[in-house]
Design brief:
Shape: elongated
Number of helices: 11
Strand order of the largest sheet: 3-4-10-6-8-7
Largest sheet: 6 strands, mixed, barrel
Radius of gyration: 30 Å
Strand content: 15-25%
Order of helices and strands: HHEEHEEEEHEEEEHEEEHHHHHH
Helix content: 40-55%
Distance between the termini: 30 Å
Structural class: alpha+beta
């Protein structure tokens, strides 16, 4: 410990350079991890909120919930299970009815019963009291600056939905989520525009066509059970369903490879620096050996230097990353996960120690008589 700290103090400029490189690489790794985790949450936070074991879709839709349409009678076939029926649709909405580029947004509309286990908890405002009222995820407030009593006009059917409450932050495939009644989010209702046929004297918030069969997008299964796929339905484990989201797996693999290579590059750079420094001190180490200082003691000093330099560099990189996160706009999908950050720090430290072992092995091979000749 004494030898390691003394050498760091003596060779300040050299070790500051090593720390600076470690800071830059660790900052980049942490930043990429924040982006990767943030994008992952933007894709899956709504699905994770369901707390599902599996999802029942119509057979043959390639795990695409937006293409799935189940007869609602299937839901009653499973009424002895802990399940929830949902309708889900992609839509474009105009904020407060203003049809301009700045006020046109993509949404995912999710319909469910208020007594459903997955109905969102209202954090601000109140529960909807009629079919023209909705709950919005906190993304609408934080990113789109929407407020209670603001409206969203759906482009597909010109229905105006009033925001009466906000729930926790949630997105589905990067789009903000709005919650409504089960029937309002059905595919038939999303296409039905009562204003196109003024003589159609039916309730526009019930069904577009009298005697039309009730359809739902999916059934959310909350407990592990013996449900099996058949010719009509496909029971998909939730992890498999998430991996099938468009672009999700490619995104995770891309960021994972980038982060892995950066951690590896960081350890290689630090290992090379320590190896060069060790070779430059061969005469010093030879003299120390003649004085009776063992190779293991010198090797431990090099390893300790590596650990100290890494801890300093990683800590500064983490601090800069946290500061950057504070100033990032809410539109940037950046989230901090303490567990992932700890794993990255541990991997960087372990890989750098492995790299430093080459320096330790070179110290053990130093022959004092040969070096001093």
């Amino acid at each position: 410990m004494f030898l390691a700290l003394k050498e760091i103090r003596k060779e300040k400029k050299r070790f500051i350079l090593i720390i600076s490189i470690t800071v830059l690489i660790s900052y980049l790794v942490y930043f990429l991890m924040g982006l990767a985790y943030g994008l992952s949450q933007d894709n899956t936070s709504e699905i994770e909120r369901w707390n599902a074991e599996s999802i029942v879709l119509k057979s043959g839709v390639n795990n695409n919930i937006f293409s799935s349409q189940l007869d609602k009678d299937i839901y009653y076939d499973y009424d002895d299970k802990e399940i929830s029926a949902i309708n889900i649709a992609r839509t474009v909405g105009y904020l407060n009815g203003e049809k301009s580029d700045d006020t046109t947004e993509n949404f995912v509309l999710i319909g469910m019963r208020q007594d459903s286990p997955i109905y969102p908890e209202v954090l601000e405002g109140r529960l909807p009291e009629n079919s023209g009222e909705i709950i919005g995820s906190m993304s609408l407030k934080n990113e789109l600056n929407l407020k209670l009593d603001d409206t969203i006009e759906l482009s597909s059917n010109e229905n105006k939905l009033k925001i009466v409450g906000f729930s926790q932050e949630a997105k589905y495939s990067v789009s903000p989520v709005i919650y409504t009644d089960l029937e309002i989010a059905s595919q038939a209702m999303m296409l039905f525009n009562p204003n196109r046929n003024s003589e159609q004297a039916i309730d526009t918030y019930t069904t577009p066509t009298p005697n039309m069969p009730d359809l739902i997008s999916a059934i959310i299964v909350h407990q592990n059970n013996d449900l099996k796929s058949n010719d009509d339905v496909e029971v998909i484990p939730v992890d498999e369903f998430i991996l099938a989201l468009p672009g999700y797996l490619a995104q995770v693999l891309t960021f994972g490879l980038m982060i892995g290579f950066l951690v590896l590059i960081s350890s290689i750079i630090l290992g090379v620096f320590m190896f060069i420094i060790t070779n430059q001190k061969r005469q010093t180490f030879a003299i120390m050996k003649i004085q009776g200082i063992s190779s293991s003691y010198i090797g431990k000093s090099v390893l300790l230097q590596t650990v100290i330099l890494n801890i300093i560099g990683i800590s500064i990189g983490l601090g800069l990353n946290l500061i950057s996160a504070y100033f990032l706009p809410t539109a940037v999908p950046f989230e901090i996960n303490g567990l992932y950050y700890f794993i990255i720090a541990l991997l960087m430290l372990l890989f750098s120690i492995v790299g430093a072992l080459f320096s330790v092995s070179s110290i053990a091979k130093i022959d004092p008589l040969e070096v001093l000749e």
